[in-house]
Amino acid sequence: MLLLFATANLAMHLGVMQGDAELIRQAAYLAVLLITLMMTVVGGRVIGMFTANRLGRTKPDPIPLLEGVTLASTAGVVILQLVIMLGVAIPASLIGGMMLLAALANTVRMARWGGLHSWREPLLWGLHGSYACIPLGLIMWVLALMGLIRTELAIHALTIGGMGAMMLAMMARVSLGHTGRPVRTLPGMGVALGFMLIAALVRSPVLAIFPQITHWTYTLSIIFWCVAYAIFLVHYTWPLMQARVDGQDG
């Protein structure tokens, strides 16, 4: 993964040096898809477990075939994007089909984690909502390959909704446990997570449907993002600057 990130980074620098905007764009797409693959791996490891532990439910046993298809198809999208970045022509139907398979597999996988039962727990539904942005972004990317929407709209579903919301939900959870504090939703964190997911919806599918309100969607998504992370900073800046409250290292 680090080698692939370094390759994408190098390609972006070469694109800048050569004035090749397309190389810069394709390298950026590769980086986004690499992080998407990481979210698929990490989300699969923890979201179902967190949900089961918090709600007192039995964690569903992974289905090996489903897990394999999910990870292989998402990794396949990354590999195809790497090949595209290297200048090899790939049929849109091939990478589009791989994206559809990855979107379907991730949707079925996520549905088994019991997200519908987590509506009372923002730290849980924030994770489920962020993971749901992975198939959303991939499906929107397929629509972009078909020429129906701009690729950037799919990118923002993956970056704002997937990355932004998942990072916020994970930081809000682990920052408590790793400082020796009880894991609970602090006041306003549900609002913060909601703002992040709304920002993603406004910036991607809503903008795709209503392109005439581009300025408003940009403005709202920026405001929602900033407010969400400001709420996090209010709660967590001071605790993260202190030693663990239980006296342990870390």
Description:
- The chain has 250 residues and is mostly helical.
- It has one domain (2-240).
- It has helices spanning 2-18, 21-55, 64-85, 92-111, 122-145, 151-177, 189-209, 214-240.
- Helix 2 packs antiparallel against helix 5 and helix 7 runs antiparallel to helix 8.
- The longest helix has 35 residues, at 21-55.
- It starts with a helix and ends in a 10-residue tail after the last helix.
- The relative contact order is 0.09.
Global geometry? globular
SS content category: mainly alpha
In percent, how much strand structure appears in the residues?
A: under 5%
Q: pLDDT average, as an integer? A: 95
- Specify the number of helices: 8
Structure keywords:
250 residues; globular; mainly alpha
Please outline what is shown here.
The protein is mainly alpha-helical and 250 residues long. The chain has eight helices and no strands.
